[in-house]
Design brief:
Layout: H1 42-46, E1 58-66, E2 69-77, E3 87-91, H2 100-106, E4 110-113, E5 123-126, E6 136-140, E7 158-160, H3 161-178, E8 187-192, H4 195-211, E9 220-226, H5 237-246, H6 252-262, H7 271-284, H8 316-320, E10 348-349, H9 353-358, H10 370-379, H11 384-394, H12 398-404, H13 407-412, H14 418-421, E11 432-435, H15 441-449, E12 453-459, H16 467-476, E13 481-490, E14 493-501, E15 505-510, H17 517-520, H18 522-533
Helix pairs in contact: 3-4, 4-15, 5-16, 6-7
This protein binds 2-acetamido-2-deoxy-beta-D-glucopyranose (NAG) (5 copies).
The site of one 2-acetamido-2-deoxy-beta-D-glucopyranose has 2 residues, from loops.
């Protein structure tokens, strides 16, 4: 029998009318968050809101515990109209990556500015493009073992797709019991990258629960997936070959040679097919797979290039890349934030992140330099703290790692200390994960045919899960086109393209964005999100 507990919660809020949040779990209010020294500008907002409680950012964090699994979530009440706005669940991928990735780097309520000196606590500012502007959003660390979610029983860190979907559904039922005031709101499931598997499998569980009359009855309406995998034949090499050719990364000659040799069959590739693909591989080496426009940094020390260092040998045009209107530039080394190119498309158990790093096969991320290689070899199989440090070196996630491993922050957000929940890693090295759900196409077909809305979006410069594969699988569902390929606008500029299909399926690109779309294009992302959630044309 499930038992569940909540240790504590917080909110960051200007609560002008506390009584209206009475249904939220007790003890949820906090008055500060390390790194955030600002006073919430309450007057700024109080005039324009028109709902029972006036609340800028209302953030609640809890563990929900069942089956010895403590799942950590961070909930932000909508800054617009909490009682009308949908509830959105956000899931980062991996598998094994924390949804604090989305919170810190993509669409969370704060813009994080790197602390000075390096390694000190970051400074937090309000993010004008937070997805909490238009939705009540839950960031969940899932499956158990990821981010702040933990168990005292290590065998709970062994997971697969279907177990994860079942656990997350369980979490949602508990969550809506905790927050009955949100149970009538529309509910959407969203995520990125490997969450291309989490989202449809979870959606199917939720739908099964609804059909079985499980209470609380979740008012599920649909789902969004960004640069998500589909586990289908349309991705992997097949998507990569057309992407690289279309983007001018390989010549017509090489493209034609590959087409001739492989005949579209990349799953059982012949020797000549593999040899010709080798030419593409060679052409791509040195590129940043998460955004082909970004420079590739081969070792952590070269990170200073990213800071616009005047004496850097990087051209000025490159130094400007990755700048957005948020204080942090987009990350350059993003190991673990998505599955690397060649390692995907396999059923069964995934290698752990450190096993993958040992293969040294992740361009732009794992340095081929000898000292670094030695560090990997000598430090890999020690203890969790040690491998956490190792990952901190490899990745460009210092800000989140510093913030979430600071005990005062953990206390403020009511996460357990490191001694209990373990150190926070952007992508957990302690879980074992099996890819067990197969192709997602039957799921998408099923869900959309039953009237659930789907927005499938792609940063069009991501080479990790390129838009070519996503465009192909959405098209393969065979639905009638109801909104033919057209540009969509943000701030009077073309922000990308979309194609609308029957059954409320929309495929959308975000022009110039890499793998983690809102990190590259925060304003555009909030635009398409809010229009889509509101049921308006994008
Ligand atoms: C740990 O979990 C496994 C699998 O759920 C279970 O078989 C085992 O009894 C648990 N161990 C303890 C000490 O609870
Ligand atoms: C690949 O080859 C295996 C064994 O020869 C066969 O069973 C499978 O159907 C083939 N797959 C494709 C996509 O051709
Ligand atoms: C700027 O870049 C140069 C060349 O890479 C490096 O030697 C120098 O230390 C960097 N300066 C700063 C302040 O990072
Ligand atoms: C599709 O929906 C039907 C009816 O709800 C269900 O029985 C079936 O398992 C679903 N298939 C998938 C792949 O979700
Ligand atoms: C599309 O979504 C709208 C709003 O949820 C719904 O009313 C409509 O029935 C859906 N259309 C289809 C074909 O499922």
């Amino acid at each position: 029998m499930d038992k569940w507990s909540f240790f504590s919660g917080i909110s960051i809020c200007v609560l002008l009318n506390f009584a209206s949040v009475e249904a939220a779990p007790k003890g949820s209010l906090i008055t500060g968050l390390p790194g955030f020294n600002g006073v919430f500008p309450s007057n700024h907002y109080s005039g324009q809101v028109n709902f029972p409680f006036i609340c800028l950012v209302f953030i609640i964090l809890f563990y929900v515990t069942f089956d010895d699994k403590n799942l950590f979530y961070y909930f932000i009440v909508s800054e617009r109209n909490p009682s009308k706005d949908p509830v959105v669940l956000w899931l980062n991928g991996g598998p094994g990556c924390s949804s604090f990735d989305g919170f810190v780097y993509e669409h969370g309520p704060f813009n994080f500015e790197e602390g000075k000196p390096k390694g000190s606590l970051p400074i937090l500012h309000l993010n004008p493009y937070s997805w909490s502007k238009v939705s009540n959003i839950i960031y969940l660390d899932s499956p158990c073992g990821v981010g702040m979610s933990y168990s005292k029983n290590q065998s709970k860190y062994i997971n697969d797709d279907l177990q994860t979907a079942a656990d997350t559904h369980n979490f949602l039922l508990k969550w809506f019991q905790l927050y009955p005031e949100f149970v009538n709101n529309q509910f959407y499931i969203s995520g990125e990258s490997y969450a291309g598997i989490y989202v449809p499998t979870l959606s199917a569980e939720v739908v099964k629960g609804i059909q079985a009359g499980q209470v609380p009855l979740i008012n599920f309406k649909g789902y969004l997936i960004g640069n998500g995998v589909s586990g289908s034949q349309f991705e992997g090499l097949s998507a990569l070959v057309s992407f690289t050719h279309g983007m001018g990364l390989v010549s017509d000659d090489i493209f034609e040679e590959v087409e001739r040799a492989c005949k579209g069959n990349y799953q059982n590739a012949t020797v000549s097919c593999y040899n010709s693909i080798g030419k593409i591989d060679k052409a791509l080496s040195g590129l940043n797979i998460y955004d082909i426009l970004e420079p590739c940094y081969h070792d952590p020390a070269s990170d200073q290039h990213a800071k616009g260092n005047a004496s850097s040998n990087l051209p000025v045009s490159f130094q400007q890349l990755g700048a957005t209107d948020r204080p942090l530039k987009v990350r350059k080394r993003m190991f673990g934030r998505a599955w690397p190119l060649w390692a995907f498309e396999k059923d069964g158990k995934f290698p752990s992140w450190s096993e993958l790093a040992l293969q040294g096969s992740v361009p732009c991320v794992v340095s081929p330099s000898k000292p670094f290689q030695q560090a990997l070899e000598t430090d890999l199989y020690c203890d969790p703290i040690c491998s956490y440090q190792l990952f901190a070196v490899k990745q460009n996630d210092e800000v989140a790692t510093t913030w979430l491993n600071d005990e005062s922050v953990r206390k403020a957000i009511h996460a357990e200390p490191k001694s209990i929940a373990g150190p926070w890693q952007i992508c957990s090295d302690r879980i074992e994960y099996e890819n067990s759900a197969g192709s997602m196409l039957p799921y998408h077909k099923n869900l959309t045919a039953q009237g659930y809305r789907a927005l499938i979006y792609s940063g069009d410069h991501d080479m990790c899960v390129p838009f070519t594969g996503t465009q192909a699988w959405t098209r393969s569902l065979g639905y009638k086109i109801v909104d033919e390929w057209r540009s969509w606008m943000s701030d009077e500029h073309v922000a990308g393209y979309l194609q609308g299909y029957d059954n409320n399926l929309t495929f959308l690109t975000v022009k110039g964005a890499g793998h983690t779309v809102p990190e590259y294009k925060p304003q555009e992302s909030l635009d398409f999100l809010s229009r889509w959630l509101d049921g308006k044309p994008i």
